[in-house]
Amino acid sequence: MSTFDFWFDFASTYSYLSAMRIEDMAQARGIEVTWRPFLLGPVFVAQGWNTSPFNIYPAKGAYMVRDIDRIARVRGIPFQMPKPFPQNSLLPARAALAIADRGKRGQFCRAVFELEFGQGRSIDDPFAIGECAAKAGLNAAEILQASRGDDVKARLRAETELAQKLSIFGAPTFVTADDELFWGDDRLEAAMDWRG
Length: 196
What we know:
Blueprint: E1 2-8, H1 13-19, H2 22-29, E2 31-37, H3 40-46, H4 53-56, H5 58-75, H6 90-97, H7 102-118, H8 126-135, H9 140-147, H10 150-165, E3 173-176, E4 181-183, H11 188-193
Parallel strand pairs: 1-2
Antiparallel strand pairs: 1-3, 3-4
């Protein structure tokens, strides 16, 4: 079974679209997905931005919201833009990295995305993250406790630094087993089918 890295930030709208379909697509192709949360903030700062480009360029932001709404309707998934945008994704990213089980991590991540972009709820609240952990069949208290640990904090910093070293500039980004990089939900099929 080939491997496939799914790099995402929980605050990313287009990552939501990918998160809701990536596992089914991977299973159909015999691919194993590794969920790789990282923080876009440091990546954006390195590009000279202090927030999401969708906030810097209002017309682009308005288009993005309409685009996500159209795609979500076609795919039969709910979409509700959370406020504020972007959401603070630090806590859910740490919580995701505290989950060692690959399958449970994916379930947790999907639950966070559903809460945020399916229901328009905040994801920086421990109660919400505990709710997502429980939905994934995990012990919420244990995950929240682990997310506060220095090792998990260091791992998230390392993942974000690695994303930058890989020249990842946005989310979602997919990296194949042979290190081919694909950016954007609209490149998920191409990434899955890549045979370098």
